[in-house]
Design goal:
Layout lengths: L1 E4 L6 H10 L4 E4 L10 E6 L3 H10 L3 H10 L2 E6 H4 L4 E2 L14 E4 L9 E9 L12 E8 L1 E2 L7 E7 L1 E9 L2 E4 L7 H13 L1
Parallel strand pairs: 1-2, 1-3, 3-4, 4-12, 5-6
Antiparallel strand pairs: 6-9, 7-8, 7-10, 10-11, 11-12
């Protein structure tokens, strides 16, 4: 059973329906106790880093998520759910993330850039991974974000360029994060979700 963390600042329902369309058993959870029966976990998120951090702390999700990931349960972070895997964010300096990867989310330097970075953009795979099975080395996906994780030599699996190059897919052992919205990315996004379910 894939459990989708249903925070108020998330697109959990969209991810739920995407998995239902794929024929994958899933459930939205708002109680951390329900994670005990998880085979895999999806942590989606939209909105502000601070809001999601506050929900995870106040609803007591932080410890169970860290513990389950430590035990080997696979977790997929989506958009803000990927950023919250890190330590902190320029958006909410006082808020802490899950601290599962030692990276901080940075804000796009606006200048000539339109922020938020919204719409379809290109993803370039740097390192092979099970979640990329059946995808081209370059594929398009749908983004909507104002903050990003920087490129890391060991953790970054795929990158996207918008002003500068940032991490669009990250991985660390049984942990994967995608900056884009696979539930809104048509064939390529559904393939990512399906591959995560099969991983």
């Amino acid at each position: 059973m894939i459990h989708i963390v249903g925070s108020p600042s998330s697109n959990a329902k969209a991810v739920y329906y995407a998995y239902k369309d794929l024929g994958v058993a899933c459930e939205i959870v708002t109680d951390p106790a329900d994670l005990a029966s998880s085979t895999k976990i999806v942590l989606p998120g939209v909105g502000a880093f601070g809001s999601l951090s506050r929900f995870l702390h106040e609803s007591n999700f932080i410890h169970p998520l860290r513990e389950l990931v430590g035990e080997g349960i696979k977790l997929l972070g989506i958009c803000l759910g990927m950023q919250i895997l890190g330590m902190s964010s320029d958006e909410s300096p006082e808020a802490s993330g899950l601290e599962l990867v030692e990276l901080k989310s940075n804000k796009f330097q606006e200048g000539d850039l339109r922020v938020p970075h919204t719409g379809w953009d290109q993803i370039s795979i740097r390192t092979n991974h099970e979640v990329f099975e059946g995808l081209n080395r370059e594929f398009s996906a749908y983004f909507s974000h104002s903050y990003y994780l920087p490129v890391h030599k060991e953790l970054t699996l795929a990158t996207t360029s918008y002003g500068s190059t940032f991490t669009s897919v990250i991985a660390k052992r049984n942990l994967v994060g995608v900056q884009f919205h696979p539930e809104r990315s048509q064939r390529s996004g559904r393939k990512i979700l399906s591959n995560f379910a099969d991983w």
